[in-house]
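Milestone 3.1: sequence recovery, worked example.
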């Protein structure tokens, strides 16, 4: 991991950009921290530069709650090499939605599964590097999307002790089956009228989770209409499991 820039934000948060191999990312931590803090991984579903305002807002809120927070660029996004397969699957998805047709399992698999296979090891390498920093320690939480990435991480990465998952993307059937192996505490956010989400698929995924503690927080509104109090509930969830 190499840090490439550092700046102090107006709320006392230090924001540092880094690269880990070919993967860019951002780390947020409190300037005033006097002891190592737990870590929250901030997942997202798009190009980091475009998503920055929302991702940084969530990260800075996590720092205010006593954590360090980090995110990385998804494969195929930003300056990372594009995937012709993913681009075609994304185009097929848009075409199906615009035509009012069902989104086939084939489209979902082509779009999501390669993303999961590449990004999950990248997230694990990021955890490795961040936990070597003196200002960060476990446990680790995951917050956000793509929800299939969060599911796979919850299955394969024992350092993640709790997750807040955003149900805002299509989910392969194979990932729903893997969800039965998830046993960490979960807090799932669902926007009931999300224009880009298959609501029934999200409910099927929640039902499949094997966790003894799992909660579904469903709110009316579209993809970007998550109410502020939903974040408060997520903060209380992490306080119970990462402290």
């Amino acid at each position: 991991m190499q840090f490439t820039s550092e700046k102090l934000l107006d709320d006392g948060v230090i924001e540092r950009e880094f690269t880990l191999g070919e993967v860019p990312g951002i780390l947020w931590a409190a300037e005033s921290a006097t002891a190592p803090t737990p870590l929250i991984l901030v997942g997202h579903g798009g190009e980091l530069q475009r998503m920055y305002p929302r991702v940084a807002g969530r990260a800075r809120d996590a720092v205010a709650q006593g954590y360090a927070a980090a995110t990385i660029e998804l494969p195929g996004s930003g300056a990372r090499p594009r995937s012709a397969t993913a681009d075609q699957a994304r185009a097929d998805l848009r075409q199906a939605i615009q035509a009012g047709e069902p989104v086939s399992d084939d489209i979902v698999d082509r779009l999501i599964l390669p993303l999961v296979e590449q990004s999950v090891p990248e997230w694990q390498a990021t955890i490795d590097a961040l936990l070597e920093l003196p200002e960060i320690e476990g446990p680790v939480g995951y917050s956000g999307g793509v929800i299939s990435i969060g599911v796979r991480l919850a299955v394969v990465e024992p350092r993640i002790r709790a997750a807040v998952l955003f149900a805002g993307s299509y989910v392969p059937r194979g990932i729903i089956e893997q969800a039965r192996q998830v046993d960490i505490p979960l807090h799932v956010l669902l926007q009931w009228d999300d224009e880009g989400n298959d609501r029934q698929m999200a409910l099927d995924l929640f039902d499949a989770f094997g966790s003894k503690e799992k909660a579904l927080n469903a709110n009316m509104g579209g993809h970007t209409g998550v109410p502020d109090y939903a974040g408060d509930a997520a903060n209380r969830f992490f306080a119970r499991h990462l402290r």
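The longest helix spans residues 105-130. The first strand starts at residue 2 and ends at 8.
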